[in-house]
From TrEMBL, chain A:
Record-stated family: Belongs to the V-ATPase proteolipid subunit family.
Keywords: Hydrogen ion transport, Ion transport, Membrane, Transmembrane, Transmembrane helix, Transport
Entry annotated with the keyword Metal-binding: no
Organism: Oryzias melastigma (Marine medaka)
Pfam families: ATP-synt_C
Protein name: V-type proton ATPase 21 kDa proteolipid subunit c''
Ranges annotated as spanning the membrane: 7-29, 49-70, 135-161, 173-193
Membrane topology: Multi-pass membrane protein
From TrEMBL, chain B:
The protein, known as: ATPase H+ transporting accessory protein 1a
Signal peptide: 1-17
Coiled coil: none
Residue stretches spanning the membrane: 439-462
Domain V-type proton ATPase subunit S1/VOA1 transmembrane: 438-476
Protein family according to the UniProt entry: Belongs to the vacuolar ATPase subunit S1 family.
GO biological process: regulation of cellular pH
All copies of domain V-type proton ATPase subunit S1 luminal, residue ranges: 274-423
Location(s), subcellular: Membrane
Gene3D superfamilies (UniProt xref): 2.40.160.110
Sorted UniProt keywords: Membrane, Signal, Transmembrane, Transmembrane helix
Membrane topology designation: Single-pass membrane protein
One Gene Ontology molecular-function label: ATPase activator activity
Amino acid sequence: MNGHAILYTGVTLAFWSTILIVGICYTIFDLGFRFDVAWFLTETSPFMWANLGIGLAISLSVVGAAWGIYITGSSIIGGGVKAPRIKTKNLVRYVSVTQRIKIYRILVKVFSNSFSGTTPETIGARNYQAGYSMFGAGLTVGFSNLFCGICVGIVGSGAALADAQNPSLFVKILIVEIFGSAIGLFGVIVAILQTSKVKMGD
Amino acid sequence: MASSGSALLRSIPAVSAVLLALAASLDRGSCSEQVPLIMWSSEGIFWPQESPPTAGHIVGQQQLTSYLQKALDVGPRNVVLFLQDKMSMEDFTKYGGVFGNKQDSVFPSLEGALRVAVSPLVLPAVSWPASNAVISQLQDQLETSALYMDPETLSQLRLNASSPALLVFRLPYSAGADLMSTKDILSENDAVIGQVLSIMKTQSVPYTALYTGLQPSGDVVSFSVEAGLGGGRSLLQARGGYRERERERERERERRIRERAGVYPPVEFKEEEKTCILLWAKGLSVSILRSGRWEEHDLTSSTFGEGGNVSLHGSSCDKNKARLVLNYKGILGHRSFKLIFAMSQRHYKVSSRRWFTLDSLELEYDGTKATFNGSRQIYAPVEYSYRCQSVTSYRWPLLVPRSAKDPANQWKVAFEDFQIQGFNLSGSEFSYASDCAGFFSAGIWMGLMTSLLMVLVLTYGLHMIMQLNTMDRFDDPKGPAISVPQTE
């Protein structure tokens, strides 16, 4: 095994064995009642969840876009050596992928208010719903854009190379790419639905 | 049972554990408020060895009386009492040659007497009101009056083994007119003790000897760890201002409460000889808002400890409900004042476990009832007791007034180091204490979660970057090197 694999297995092993041993200790000493998920969900601040959601939305979308561009870009550069005409046609489409990141504008809109409570009773159910919805929406958009970006990137790389060989193939492969983009679009739609009724405030 | 488990779970590193133990021992205020007491009898007389007190246990008035009674029943009834003005354990540790320097000890006669005595009784910590009253106690038990003596008068006295006698030798402690050091004073006292004991020996009358002090000496440096009280920061903070004074008063109050020894049994309610409800707190105070000011009344001494004379009339307990009523008189101008703890237990389906809650804490006075709700935060599994360091209605409140118009809004209740149990009691001791504070706080969990996420992301990125390699597919080590021409 190379160095990376050893490191990752070591860390994973340490993490899971800690969890296992803590769990066993809780069970043996009949302290299982102290493992309180409800306490965790009500005591952690909805602000944290909402902001994590926004952060994950942006960052995962960007990772997807970047990965896609990286894959396609290397193919375009390689193919462009012998067939320079493929450059312009293929690069344009990657702007559209990053449009997905515009979702953040919608998420930030619901965040213009904040609440002033400190205990679960004073914070109120609506703020908790806002926090968790935004976390979920962020995850939705983030992961769907991540995989959409990778998908479009790989298909685009194939498209560029095919186009270099035979210009008539470009339009046909474009259709496949559109299906790939649709994945990201679904994610955006679902996230908008999740945050549609959300409003933070007192 | 589970307390050892929780100790395991709280895997405090060793250094902080030592510091904690040190702080705990110092913070008890132990060494500066108690007086040691040493009792022995003349050689050859054996008296039954009492089970020695556990370390840190402070012997109160009643316990001391029982010790003296047992000793005087069996042992000789001629008592020689060496009463020093002030005495503390530190005097023995500082001047007793205990650090391997036996030759520097200022107590040679005392040590000699204890060595020869068959079973001396050493009580390292007697509460000083008790030691102050030791003369009167001995007088009561021996039914004779004390004779204050010094070695000269003793040699002229003829003692009788059959009739009891109480001979008191007062020994000084603080520096007299000639400003002698403590060491010299103690050395002189020890010489007096030696003289007296040798005179008693020549008289060949069996005797019981006691060496104790009237008050703790407080001579030694007793520092209390002021961690967390902000004592060290006051130099940097700007002084003055009403808020500052309020905070300081609060801190002072807290410090006073914290320094209490707090060694007393819990308030116990028995139903048909079986203990049903237990309540313990280190501090209990109620305050009422009158004409814009809070008036406080400390109820600790009337509820707990030796002065506790609170009546539990009206308390009841059955299988599902427990109700503890503390009846006071004359609190804050109210003739009758009751503190009612209402607890209930039932089975909860989701956790499939029985839990008990402190449903409400009621203050009943002159017909008015102020109710604090506690069921939200004060709960524990029914087999265990509930314990919390601070149960108040104003500072991180665990007790909230039942409604916005409830009279409880005019009251403040504060418990320090609160522990309660209303069900499943076997004996008169608390079961395992389910503490209100968990291992990690909410903030720690949030930080851990976010940090874990960041670390995962970082790991992923690092992994990807580290597996990028330069292209070496078309490398040809034997071919010509690439040349970059300088000109266009």
